[in-house]
Amino acid sequence: MNRSSLRSTWTLVGAFLAAALFAGSLPWLTGSDPARTVLRARQQERDADPAALEAIRESLNLPENPFIGTWQWLTRAIRGDLGVSWVSGTPVTDKIGSSLLVSLNLSGMAAAATLILGFLLVAPMILAVGRGRPAASPVLRVVSAVLAAIPEFVLAVLLPFIFAVRLRWLPATGWRTTEHAILPVTAIAVASVGVLLRVLMTAVTAVADEDWVRTWRANGARPGRISVEVARRALAVVLPQVLLLLAGIVGASVVVEDTFAIPGLGRTSLNAALAQDVPVVQGAMAVLVLLGVVVGTIGNLLHRWLMAPALGAGQGAAPVRHVAVIRRGWGWWASVTLLVVLVVGGWFRTSSVDPLARNSGPSWLHPLGTDHVGRDVWARVGEGAWLTIGSAVVLTLICLAIGLLVGLASKQGGAGITDILNAIPSVFLGVVLAAAMEAGLFTAWLAICLVGWIPLAVHTRTLAAEARAAGFHQAAITSGASSWWITRRHILPSVFRPVLGHALVRLPHLALALTALGFLGLGAGHDSPEWGKLLADSVLHMEQAPWAVFFPAMGLVLLGLVTNLARAE
Length: 569
Fold this sequence. Notes:
Elements: H1 3-24, H2 26-29, H3 34-42, H4 50-60, H5 66-78, H6 92-130, H7 138-149, H8 152-166, H9 178-208, H10 211-218, H11 223-252, H12 254-259, H13 265-274, H14 278-312, H15 330-347, H16 377-409, H17 415-422, H18 426-436, H19 441-452, H20 454-468, H21 471-478, H22 483-519, H23 531-539, H24 547-564
Helix pairs in contact: 1-5, 1-14, 1-17, 3-4, 6-9, 6-11, 6-14, 7-9, 7-24, 8-9, 9-11, 11-14, 13-14, 13-18, 14-17, 14-18, 15-16, 15-24, 16-19, 16-20, 16-22, 16-24, 18-19, 18-22, 19-22, 20-22, 21-22, 22-23, 22-24, 23-24
């Protein structure tokens, strides 16, 4: 094992232990005595007298401080014992095991559907490469932008409303037969395929620029043979990310499982967090961390196995070309115009309650209709934009600052940390923090910031490594310049603009995470106009006022289109 592999292994072990330490100390992160929390969960009417608290500690073997508690939890978890539920008193391992099987089944089918749908959509692009045509596909780029911008929880609401309530073709909730899996798998796959499409398009474009493609074509290789090899190479590139997508779906499908009443890991964790049943949340987080490590390792091994023949034949990747050209077509301008009208137009309207105008359809007085208490939907959407888009902008800036600092400071390693944290999506992390802290907007912000900086840090580290290998960097070191001076004057200016563009592209993802937590009741407070909370309140009355769901959802889609349709090419 070389030094780099050894360093990555120790980084992975350290990150895993840090995550396990966090999981083990969850009962004390609530800021209150765990015995008091158990007593409140089991017997709300009983006073928290010393005798009752001591009885709880003895029955659950609760230690008095987080250090001993964390050590005991870790030693038991290694043996497969995750403790007992604070609410029901049943073993956590049994509950987590059964819910994990359901989530793995759901995420496995969703990941397979995502991969199949992604390759079907990108197939014309692969065939074009085989025939020697340009790999770029503007239509596919627009399709990926639209799919990536559709909120998963909106699909989880609309699909059962259309196909179960209106058409009565499929069951709306439950997890008993194959028919029960169709709608939730579709909701996850449609929301995930947009992200996968971007990865596939980038991979196919990079493979099309490799020297072996031109060599094969010049030697008379059949277009079909070239296309097959391009597809195999693209699959080798994206396979680790697809497997991590599967691990991420297990934690990120909280909304889908809750909406469809699927007894998976996400719904189990959400219910436990709302009931302050911390051991169940602990166990779910530990399982996700372990799953991230296993899936990340398998993905890297499969990637090396699939790439080995190509690398042995000299089919290396072509140098990456950085072209700072921003293309904004009519779709981008249309999305910007509609978003501005939707948001700014609502600022000049009033959202006062009018019981006589409840669930009124669009009219001259209320162009976007009214909600279930008679408030103007346009005004509510405009008010919520301050919280949703404004929060997403602030969170993007915070993640950008952290990503730049960490990326510039770290020169090697970090893959293990990325694999682990990728397996704990911000929505699931919000559930975990809600069990340790009071659910609210600050908790949602914290959950998003804890993982939102990672892609930006990885991007910064990669660009900084390229800059350090340049001649000007070596010349500055030879001249006696300090590392801080070189970073501030040369490296930071060279990496800032591309990382800033990356951060802007990720802005709608942070907005979707924030609204998903609000939709679950773990974000903005009661009666808030934040778009996720607005959707959660409107869904209950969707049959009488579907416009109250459509317009905040359209705002999220437009926000995603504005950033995804103006990417650098």
